[in-house]
Structure formats: C-alpha cells, structure tokens
C-alpha cells in the first residue's frame, strides 16, 4: 500500500501528469498524511450538512397570534323562586321563624312568586334566591308601599347610561301608590313582584358595574383576565343595611379619578353638537415637494383646528392661499407648526397621525370611545393601586404612579398589528440587568428558520446560543430542515451591546412572555406611530423606570449595568402593572385624550356589546 502511495506521489511530482483519482482507501490515507484534524473535521461537517440539505425540508408552519372571534354573550336564565315561594316545604328557613299568616306582609306576598317569571344573569339569579332564602323579608317595601330607598335605587338604575351601561337592562317600574285597600293580599302580591324585580335588576347592575357586561377573553386570546366573581348575595345584604343604598349601588362601579373623568367627559360630550368638520382623504400621504389636490383640505383643516396663536403667526399665508396643490416650503412650515402644536413629530409629512389631528373625530365617535373605555375599566381592579405602572398601548406611553399620582411617564414601542401586545394585569417582580434574550418560538420559526435553512451557521456567526433538547449545540450542527413547531430548539442572545433587550428588562412573569425592556433601536421613539415590536414593551428611558420600580436612583441602576454581567434584582414589594388598551383615557389633569385604535379592537368590543344588548332585549 505504501508503494502505491509513493508511486502516485512520484507520478505527480516528476512527470507532471495528473494521476487518476486514487481509490477511496488510498484517499483516506492521503487525508491522514496531509490534512490537519481541524480541516478533516470541517470537511466531515460539510459532508453531513450536504446530506442534511439533501433531505426534503419540513414544511414551515408559521406560529401565529390569537384570532378574534364572534362574541357569544352571557345567557340569561329564569330565576327559580321555588326555594323562597314555599320555605316550609323546601326547608329554606326555620319554621319557627315564620310570622302568623296575615301579620307578615312578605308571607302574604309569597303566592305571587309561583307565577312570577323573571330572567337574570346566572350569578344574579342564584344570589337573589340565596339572599331571600336566608332573609325572608322585604328590602324595598314597607307596609303597603315601596320605600324612598327603593325610589332612590331606581333612579340609579335609570341613570346607568351615565356610567357606560344601558339603563334598558335594569328597567323596573314602580307600582302605583294608590290601590284598593280591600284587596290587601293582592297588594302584597304586587309588592312582592316589585321586590323581586328590583332585587334582580340590582343584582344584574352590581355584576355589570363590577366586571363589565362583556367577558374580554371571549373576544380574542389577546385579552387575558380572570373574570370577577363578586359575592352578590352578601352585597345584597350589605345594600339592605346601607344608610344610603343608592350611593352604595353607584360605588359598585370602578372608583378613582380615571373613572370620574370618563363620567364627566361622557356628560360633557352629550351636551355638545358635532360642529363643522373638514374631510381629508383617509389614504393621504403628502410629503414636502409633492403636489396633491387634497392640500386645500389640509390648509382648511389647519385653519379650523389650529390655535389662535398659530393663525396669527400665519395670517398672511391663510389670506393669500388660493388652493394650489403644490406643497411648497411655505406650506410645509405651516404644517410643521401645526404638528408641533398637536404634539406630533414636526416633519412636514401629512400621514395618518397628522390627518387625524387635522380632521379630529366627531362627538359621536368620542362618546363611543368613552363608553368602551368605561367597559374596559371594569376589567381592571375596582380601585387601582396608588403605586402602579400603567401602560396604554394606543397612547404609546408607560406611566409610573406613586401615591396615586403620575410620577414618571415615557414613550414606548408596542407590538405591531401582526404581533399584538396583549391586554392584561400582572405584578412587576424583578429587574434583570445585561439580560439574555430568549428568542420566542414565533421568531425562530417565522423569521429565523428560512435563513438558517440556507445558512446553518447564521446564529453561530451572530454569537447566539442554541440548545436542542436542553443541550447546548452549535447552530451549524442542527438540521434546520427538520426543525418546526414543537421541535425543542431554543435560541438566546447573550448580553452584549447589540442585545435586542439592551441594558435591562423589567419582568412581570406571564404566559405571553411580555415585559418592559431597553432597546438599541432608539430612533423608533421619535415616530408618532410606534406599533413596531414583536409584542414586548420597549421603554424610551428604561433606567428611569427601573429606578422607580426598585425605589433607587438612576445612578444606582447605572452601577448595576456597568459591570456588564447578567444579574437580577428582586423588588422588595411587587408592583401592579396594567398592560392596557384604551383609546380614550384621561391625562394627569383629568382631561380625556383620544387615540387611534391601532389594533382595531374598538370594533370588536362594540360588536360584543351589541351582541350582549341584543341577547338581553330578546
């Protein structure tokens, strides 16, 4: 064999003739003699990769977000008055507690229950029966008349529209004050029917006021709330003993400055006319130097919406403008002034955000947004914690509250329309400095996988860490053609200057893998529309927010980051965080602001409310 190898070498060296390819056995000996172990390993890996690439790739099934569903409203049920219609038979109360027939007005009215047919929300129906089974007596009736307390409560129910509910859902007519005194038993039966109707309406109202008429989780998986389950029987008992039951009933609605501001805004809007309005094409995108006939409407809208100071500064331009379509430097200056006044980026580009500011929305639109905000407010805790973080996605803001007052507010970037940020409550537990970024499976499958199939070493070159079945592997060793959803491949980016999470992240562990974090893409915060992330909340000033939630200084936060090492710091006290979605919400002064419906969720909530009202009216 050695002689064979030697002859090949001599033939190449001395004759210049290229020898035929040696047998496989001889080739292996050549590799062993002339190639380094590292070179042989690289070639072996290349051969394995070629074999892998030859295998038909597994079809990529994209990981998509939740979908929106046709809303199924709560079903009303018939109230079963059997347990209170005949307490002796059912054993609902102690027989010895019964008053002699003819003395107890409630007992006289019991026969009315046999023919009384009322429908209610399931929890309300159960609570009314439970309460009267334990407390067989009137709440809203005294003698042969309804009480002033009952009339006050009816007034609250009739005013349900003022708190974003529908008065039609709780309508109860009071019996006439005059009656035939010779028909005493019939009067008690009439009063019994009124008593039950009012208690059922009150129980329905308390349930709606506390948790809302809509179950948000049925709208889409982007909503994540544990639906509230108030103890209605106990609340009915508390109402029966309250010094002012009307006030106690109103208190079932969310409490706090935010809800009071929404109530005040709803009342204000209902007293206003829509007024004049300039229409601008919905798809307008006008840049400096372009020409567009919609420019005339743009200038007219600025003249209508602009402040007196702006109109004074540009009075000559308004007077001389003759409707020309050329968007020249002078008109760009006017638009920039309007944008600055409206809190927009003054770039002179008339896009969706600038158009909305120019056109505005009608009072009817605002009323709708306020009502939807009042419904959403019921999904949050009834009383918001004095120390909290409130993220409003349509406003692109995150605000830290201390002592119930806004102490820090900043711009944020939220999820894109295809990667929407969820709407949920949680608690902030820790801050991680120089964080790892665990790449979500949706990004691995939807975005990285096509690149990795073409270039398996892609992640190795970028410095990402890859695991397969929990074991660290190189990116180039993975058969990416066989990878798909549920394949057990993990990817994470170590701490670095280019880490997608930047210097820190603020965690409130949840099943959606959403948190607040820094970002190297600082320029995005200058945009007016900032729905650009994969779902997490990017903070404009993460160090300031971290300092607030940890109760320390920005300098201290900097010292944690300076070491460059990954570390976690637990909060001494967990802080509630609301990752919310409100297209109408009050500012610090209580003035309600309106925002674009970035994910189109207002329409889905409106449909859910419409379905609920239709189900109840039928």
Commentary on this structure:
The model is unreliable at 1-22 and 89-102 (pLDDT under 50). A hairpin with a 2-residue loop joins β7 and β8. The chain folds into three domains: 77-258, no CATH class; 295-353, no CATH class; 383-615, Beta Barrel (L,D-transpeptidase catalytic domain-like), CATH 2.40.440.10. It has 24 helices and 20 strands. It has an eight-stranded mixed β-barrel with strand order 6-7-8-17-15-14-9-18. A four-stranded antiparallel sheet has the order 10-13-11-12, with no helix packed on it. It is of the alpha+beta class and 618 residues long. α8 crosses α11 (232-241) and α10 (184-211) packs across α11 (232-241). It is 41% helix and 14% strand. It starts with a helix and ends with a helix. The radius of gyration is 35 Å and the shape is globular.
- The CATH superfamily name of the largest domain is L,D-transpeptidase catalytic domain-like
User: What is the terminal-to-terminal distance?
Assistant: 96 Å
Structural class given helices, strands, pairing?
Answer: alpha+beta
Under the CATH scheme, the architecture of the largest domain is: Beta Barrel
The helix content is: 40-55%
Total beta strands = 20
Please give the largest β-sheet: 8 strands, mixed, barrel
What characteristic shape results from the CA principal axes? Answer: globular
Q: What's the helix count?
A: 24
Overview features:
618 residues; disordered N terminus; globular; 4-stranded antiparallel β-sheet; alpha+beta; 41% helix; 24 helices; 3 domains; single chain; L,D-transpeptidase catalytic domain-like
């Amino acid at each position: 064999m050695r002689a064979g190898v030697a002859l090949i070498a001599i033939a190449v060296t001395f004759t210049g003739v290229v020898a035929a390819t040696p047998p496989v056995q001889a080739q292996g000996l050549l590799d062993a003699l002339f190639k380094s172990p590292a070179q042989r390993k690289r070639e072996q890996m290349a051969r394995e990769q070629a074999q892998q690439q030859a295998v038909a790739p597994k079809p990529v099934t994209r990981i998509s977000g939740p979908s929106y569903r046709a809303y199924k409203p709560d079903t009303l049920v018939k109230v079963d008055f059997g347990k209170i219609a005949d307490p002796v038979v059912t054993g609902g109360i102690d027989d010895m507690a019964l008053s002699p027939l003819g003395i107890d007005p409630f007992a006289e009215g019991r026969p009315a229950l046999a023919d009384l047919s009322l429908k209610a929300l399931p929890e309300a129906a159960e609570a009314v029966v439970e309460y009267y089974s334990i407390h067989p007596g009137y709440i809203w009736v005294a003698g042969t008349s309804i009480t002033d307390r009952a009339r006050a409560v009816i007034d609250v129910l009739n005013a349900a529209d003022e708190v974003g509910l529908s008065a039609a859902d709780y309508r109860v007519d009071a019996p006439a004050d005059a009656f035939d005194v010779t028909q005493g038993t019939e009067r008690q039966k009439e009063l019994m029917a009124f008593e039950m109707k009012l208690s059922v309406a009150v129980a329905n109202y308390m349930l709606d006021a506390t948790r809302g008429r809509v179950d948000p989780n049925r709208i889409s998986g982007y909503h994540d709330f544990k639906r509230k389950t108030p103890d209605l029987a106990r609340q009915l008992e508390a109402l029966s003993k309250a010094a002012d039951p009307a006030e106690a009933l109103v208190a079932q609605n969310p409490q706090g400055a935010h809800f009071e501001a929404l109530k005040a805004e709803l009342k204000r809007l209902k007293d206003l006319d829509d007024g004049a309005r300039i229409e601008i094409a919905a798809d307008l995108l006008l840049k400096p130097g372009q020409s567009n006939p919609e420019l005339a409407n743009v200038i007219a809208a600025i003249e209508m919406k602009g402040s007196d100071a702006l109109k004074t500064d540009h009075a000559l331009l308004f007077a001389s403008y003759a409707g020309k379509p050329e968007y020249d430097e002078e008109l760009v200056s006017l638009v920039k002034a309007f944008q600055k006044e409206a809190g927009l980026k003054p770039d002179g580009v008339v896009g969706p955000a600038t158009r909305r500011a120019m056109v505005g929305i009608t009072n009817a639109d605002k009323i709708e947004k306020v009502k939807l905000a009042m419904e959403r407010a019921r999904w949050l805790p009834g009383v918001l914690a004095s120390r909290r973080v409130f993220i409003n996605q349509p406003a692109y803001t995150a605000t830290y509250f201390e002592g119930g007052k806004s102490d820090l507010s900043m711009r944020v970037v939220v999820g894109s329309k295809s990667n929407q940020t969820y709407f949920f409550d949680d608690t902030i537990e820790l801050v991680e400095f120089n964080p790892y970024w665990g790449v979500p499976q949706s990004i691995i499958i939807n975005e990285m996988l096509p690149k990795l199939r073409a270039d398996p070493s892609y992640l190795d070159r970028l410095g990402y860490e890859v695991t397969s079945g929990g074991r660290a592997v190189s990116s180039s060793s993975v058969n990416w053609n066989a990878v798909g959803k549920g394949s057990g491949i993990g990817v994470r980016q170590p701490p670095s200057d280019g880490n997608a999470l930047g210097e820190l992240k603020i965690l409130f562990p949840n099943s959606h893998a959403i948190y607040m974090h820094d970002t190297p893409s600082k320029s995005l915060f200058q945009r007016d529309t900032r729905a650009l992330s994969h779902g997490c909340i990017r903070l404009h000033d993460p160090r300031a927010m971290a300092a607030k939630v940890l109760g320390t200084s920005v300098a201290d936060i900097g010292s944690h980051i300076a070491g460059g090492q990954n570390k976690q710091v637990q909060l001494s006290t967990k802080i509630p965080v609301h990752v919310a979605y409100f297209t109408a919400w009050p500012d610090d002064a209580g003035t309600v602001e309106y925002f674009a419906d970035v994910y189109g969720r207002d329409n889905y909530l409106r449909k859910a409310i419409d379905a609920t009202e239709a189900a109840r009216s039928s």
